Every structure is written in C-alpha cells, then in structure tokens.
Amino acid sequence: MTTRLSAMLFLESVCLVWLLFGHAATASALQSGDTAQKHLDAGQAAYSSKDYGAAMKEFKRAESMDKAKPETYVWLARCYLATNKPKEAVKTLEHAIKVDPGRTEPHLLLARIYYQENNIAKAKQQVELAISAGANGAGVHALRAELFMADDDPADALKEYELAAQLAQPGDPALPDVQVEIDGLKSFLHYQQGPRQTSQDSTFQMPRALNRPRPAYSEEARSRHIQGIVKEKALVDHTGQIRTIIFMQRLGYGLDEQAAAATRAMKFQPALKDGQPIAFWVVLEIEFNLR
C-alpha cells in the first residue's frame, strides 16, 4: 500500500510539473508574440522565396497552435503541390473544407489538381462547389472555360472566357491570354458553321505535318517533375503555316507556352479541296516526358 501510494504521489507530482511547465510555456509564447498567425506569415514569406521546406515547417507550426485556421491548410497544400506531392495536397485541402466548408480556395485548388490528373468530372464538381460558395472572379471562369475545352465544348468555353474577360481587373496579366483564347474560339466556331470536309470526300486531303519540333521543358515544370500531354486545336492556313491555337487540355507550369511555341514552329503540307490548298483545323497532342 505504501509503495502504491508513493507511486501515485509521484505521478501526481509529475503531472503537476507538466501542467506548470505547459502554462509557463504558453505564457512565454504569448509574451514573445509566438502565435499561429506569426508562423503563417513567416510561412508565406518562405513560400514566396520558394523555400518550401521552411514554409512547410512554419505552416505545420501554425497548425499545431490553431487547428481552426483553414488558410493554414491551403498554404500547406500549396507547399505539397510545389514539392510534387499531390496526394498529400488533396488530403490537406479536404481537411480545410471540413474546417470551413464555405471557403472557396480549397475547392479551386482541388479542381486544378484533378484537372492536371485529367479527372475532368471531379474538377468540374469542385469548380461548381466553389461557385456555389461565392467564387466569381476572372480566374474561376477561365478555369471553367478550360474544363469545357477539355470536354470538347468550345461554345460554352467561349462564354466562360468572355465572362472572365469582363470580370478581369484592368492590367490583369492573364487578360491577354484570355483574349487570345476568345479570338481563337470565335475563329474555330465560325469555321465549324461552314461546309465541313470529311475523310469520305474524295476531293479532300488532310494537312500533313512536315516536321515535329521538340518542345522545351520549362524550369518550373522540370523542378516539379510535371509530365503529361498538352492538347490543342490549331488552324493550318492554305500555306501550311499555323495561324491560330486554342488549348483543349493544359498542363500549366509554363508547359502550355512551350507547347504553343513548338506548334508554331511546325510546317504542314496544307489541306487540299479539289486540288486547291485550304485552311483546316487539326488536333495536336504535345507530350512532355521527363526521361
């Protein structure tokens, strides 16, 4: 009995020491201004400097101090994406949604992840959830347009790009690219309204590629180990030159621009109708593979 009582008293004294130590540590942290927001700010600064390891440590520290901050999980997910860990990013974003179901950023980031994985149905679902939660910026509708293009729905994609252009702030760096997509889609839809050539038409010949320039890898995509296919519709004019490009499926991280540059360097034998060269839209797939 004496031994058991002594053990119990010892455990109580240990617990008391830990409680006192914990209160002292908390008080010390508060006095020194060590808060979750402070670590969140430090993490964002490290992220801006592309020091993702340091950023992740700060965000995890912020999370340990305040588990109710959804922005912490969003930033942590961005770090996972920057270090090529999409599965971890998805789990973190799903947790952010549980913490704050009305927040739009987790849905939009999840949409981007699913889009890059070519899971268009899930990507669309996340965009619609973000819109239902109040998201309505130019970037939201540009993303929605990209998803319509991935579903080969250029008419609805054009509507979304035009809405994105209307909502964009003056000087938005993305606005010129949106306008290029609008012009390209208008050209494509106008072409579709005219007479269509088919392989069954004996007087028609498809354009034939004369070269296949290899696209360059962007440094950002290489560092993140991004691989996949950029899918385009391209207008080959009557001289065999590429005149217009619209994206059906993107990869991001600078690879779309590299794909377009490689496409513009292509030369074609133009399409022929009754022996005469004509303009014709072709579908191209530009593969990026780290070997």
Offer a concise description of the structure.
Helices cover 58% and strands 13% of the residues. It has 291 residues and is α+β, with helices and mostly antiparallel strands.
Task: Characterise this structure.
By secondary structure, the protein is α+β, with helices and mostly antiparallel strands. The chain has two domains: 29-189, Serine Threonine Protein Phosphatase 5, Tetratricopeptide repeat (Alpha Horseshoe), CATH 1.25.40; 202-288, TolA/TonB C-terminal domain (2-Layer Sandwich), CATH 3.30.2420.10. Helix content is 58%, strand content 13%. The protein is built from twelve helices and eight strands. A three-stranded antiparallel β-sheet has the order 1-6-7, with no helix packed on it. Strands 4-3-8 form a three-stranded antiparallel β-sheet. Strands 2-5 form a two-stranded antiparallel sheet. A hairpin with a 2-residue loop joins strand 6 (271-273) and strand 7 (276-278). Helix 8 runs antiparallel to helix 9 (154-167). The radius of gyration is 27 Å and the shape is elongated. The N and C termini lie far apart (71 Å).
How many domains make up the 3D coordinates?
Answer: 2
Distance N terminus to C terminus? 71 Å
> How would you state the average pLDDT, rounded?
88
The description of the largest β-sheet is:
3 strands, antiparallel
The CATH architecture of the largest domain can be named as: Alpha Horseshoe
Number of strands: 8
Given as residue ranges, the uncertain stretches (5+ residues, pLDDT < 50) are 1-31
Number of helices: 12
Choose one word for the global shape.
elongated
Counting helices, strands and paired strands, the structural category is alpha+beta
Main sheet: strand order? 1-6-7
Which series of helices and strands comes N to C?
HHHHHHHHHHEEHEEHEEEE
Strand content: 5-15%
The CATH homologous superfamily of the largest domain: Tetratricopeptide repeat domain
Helix content: 55-70%
The first-level CATH class name of the largest domain: Mainly Alpha
CATH topology description of the largest domain: Serine Threonine Protein Phosphatase 5, Tetratricopeptide repeat
Rg computed from alpha carbons, rounded to a whole number of angstroms: 27 Å
